[in-house]
Amino acid sequence: MPALALLSAIFVVGFEQVVETKYGATGIVGLLLLTMGIKAKSPAVSSIGAVVLALLVTGPAL
Q1: Structural domain count, the chain
Q2: From what superkingdom does this record's organism come (predicted)?
């Protein structure tokens, strides 16, 4: 069980680093809002986080 927790923590930290390097602080805020909304079971907060991330990903295409 500790090995699974360690692997998931390494994956999460690595994913956050990729988002931060590619999308900056706004990407981290969007990811944080999405995660907090899912954990708190708040559709409004998770939707805001998802919209922020979607706008960052599709920003240059618009």
Answers
A1: 1
A2: Bacteria
Distance CA 19, CA 28 (A): 7
Give residues with Cβ within 8 angstroms of 32, minimum separation 6. Answer: 49
Structural domain range at position 17: 2-61
> H-type helices in the chain, by residue range?
2-39, 43-58
Span 18-51, pLDDT tens digits: 888 888 888 889 888 988 998 999 999 999 999 9
The band of 57, judged by pLDDT with boundaries at 50, 70 and 90, is confident
